[in-house]
Design a protein that fits this description.
297 residues, alpha/beta, Rossmann fold, 8-stranded mixed beta sheet, 8 strands, globular
Amino acid sequence: MPGQITLNKTMDRADLQLLQAQIITRELNELIRQLQEQKLTISSWYGYVALPPVWQRYEIANRGFNYEPLPNAIDDRRFPWFLYWEISWVVMHNQWRPGMRILDLGGSSSLFSYYLASKGLDVTTVDLQPELVDNANRVAAAMGWRLKNLVMDMRHLTVDGPFDHITSICVYEHLPWHDRVAINRDLRRLLSPAGNFSITFDYRNPSRQAGIDSPEDVAAQFIRPSGLAPRGNQQFHDSGVNYLLHPFLMPQAEWRWKVQAIRRGEFLLTDWPKKKTANDYTFGALFLTQPTTPPTA
């Protein structure tokens, strides 16, 4: 369609040069600074408060070859530019207003959920990690935010809808394929009649458990099961540009990383010798909305 905006697509660092993205980036930096000054905890882009040294090295390796921080990033060690892109791209392409009800799947204590709450949105997060939920509730109380955090499995949602928007930032790829489909089939009952669903996810991650590798995968796992309609471009756009590297495939991968990845089922033992000399995957974003019902005669 002529003039159609390409919303549903893979990550592009150049998007962060857009004026609106620069504004959001400054706001994120200021929010991080404010919370750090008050000694209030934000989980890192990995979804943890702290990582042991061996897994800190894993996280750095995951950033891929030739990683460059954003200029003036306040805490790149915990919040790389990938996360800024995910948050900025989702926020830029939604018209959220204070008081709107937002359900964030898997985002307790995250920079994203804090940012939404800081903008006056009524945010509910669900997460499996009680320590992240408890921490987020303490932060919400300290900041006076409308931010409720619940220990809950997103595969069995018992929250009270409807919500104006449902979101999730890089969580779905950690779930089995059949669970993704089941969750997405259940979302429409929680959305308002004009509700929207915006997510980000690993795209082309070589882990055997990820499996979001093509526009058809996006359609089969998210669009068709949800019954929601894509906003903007109808087919997911893959630029072919990669920014991240799975640490298992790094030439200097530590043996602990490989052992754990095999135990988790991400790779087979026969994959042990495999190595890559270039980045191999990226993130993607998808925007869906309640479909318009055709008028009846």
